Amino acid sequence: MISIIASDMDGTLLNNEMTVSDFNADAIRQAQQQGVHFIVSTGRRYSEAQPLMAAQGITAPLITLNGAEVYDASGKMLDMVPITKTVSRAIFHTLISRGYYFEVVGNDGIYSNNKAKRIEQIAHLLTNLNPDTSFKIAVTLASARLELMDINYVDNYDELLNDPTKHVMKIITFSQEGPAKLKPLSDELLAKHSSLKITSSSRSNIEINNINAQKGIAVERYANMLNTPMTDVMAIGDNNNDVSMLKVAGISYAMGNGTNEVKQLASRVTDTNVNDGVGKAILEVLAQQ
After folding, report:
1. CA-to-CA distance for 259 and 246, rounded, in angstroms?
2. Which residues contact 209 (CB under 8 A, 6 or more apart)?
3. Are the CB atoms for 254 and 271 separated by under 8 Å?
4. CATH architecture label of 85-210
5. Angle subtended at Cα 108 by Cα 102 and Cα 109, rounded to the nearest 5 degrees
6. How confident is the model at residue 135 (pLDDT cuts 50, 70, 90)?
């Protein structure tokens, strides 16, 4: 019997309008009413993820930044797993020397050292989600959206490392050339630093975390807190950064829009994120309880 459901957000729980559909929300509420614990497991920050759930009136624990932070349903932080500052400094040096644009997610917000590049990355995301949108229009939309986002601009990322109150939770590196360029970089970083876990949430990025900051590890810790065996845990995801939790869950669902790796790994496949795949998977499992 499923007692815990863990769901990714982007490409999974969220549709292409970046909202939780009424169908998905109703399915989550139905699960909660039946005593099933629902937990969000996302690469997003808490401040980006929680409002999306609150908009549907849903209260749930959140695993954020791929497992680097874990919050209970009231918003209290339960766990934090940063990248050490020594390793962070070395990663910064490698990325800068190779000419990569990257962003740093700290314990107090997102940091960027290039506003134009930040706009460009959001524009690429918008065109990927909505292919009918021209890149020029996407840049305009991205510029407007950027004003609503809590971004900290710095001249040098070393500012974070020199402040004892700040911690590096995740580093996101971008390239529109995709895996052809990012895979060798990932291999290089992993060869140098055994303390890292590198995943991705799209073809155009890699997400660098502490090796102990993984969705699967965080879901297991949460299940242990509830004295729930992993055979009673269900996980839903669509991309590389969901693999660790799909591997440990008793029932795993890949989204219809998921990567081939995720589909081959998961025990089941549901509909796409734009067709309420999460809600359909939840209702399917509830009907079998």
Report:
1. 13
2. 65, 66, 67, 68, 81, 83, 169, 170, 196, 197, 198, 199
3. no
4. 2-Layer Sandwich (3.30)
5. 40
6. low
From the CB of residue 34, how many other CB atoms can be counted at a distance below 10 Å? Answer: 10
Confidence of residue 148 (pLDDT cuts 50, 70, 90): very low
Is 4-80+213-287 a CATH 3.40.50.1000 domain?
yes
Q: Could you check whether 4-80+213-287 and 85-210 share the same CATH topology?
A: no
Q: What is the pTM of this model?
A: 0.85
193 pLDDT higher than 50: yes
176 confidence band (pLDDT: 50, 70, 90):
confident
How confident is the model over 206-228, as pLDDT tens digits? 999 999 999 999 999 999 999 99
Residues 6+ apart with CB under 8 A from 147: none
Residue labelled with tokens 């290089």: 188
Q: Closest by alpha carbon to 196, among 27, 68, 41?
A: 68
Residue ranges of domains in the chain: 4-80+213-287, 85-210
CB 160 within 8 A of CB 111: yes
Secondary structure of the chain in HEC code, one letter for each residue: CCCEEEECHHHHHECCCCCECHHHHHHHHHHHHCCCEEEEECCCCHHHHHHHHHCCCCCCCEEEHHHCEEECCCCCEEEECCECHHHHHHHHHHHHHHCCEEEEEECCEEEECCHHHHHHHHHHHHHHHCCCCCHHHHHHHHHHHHCCCCEEECCCCHHHHCCCCCCEEEEEEECCCCHHHHHHHHHHHHHHCCCEEEECCCCCEEEEEECCCCHHHHHHHHHHHCCCCHHHEEEEECCHHHHHHHHHCCEEEECCCCCHHHHHHCCEECCCHHHCHHHHHHHHHHHCC
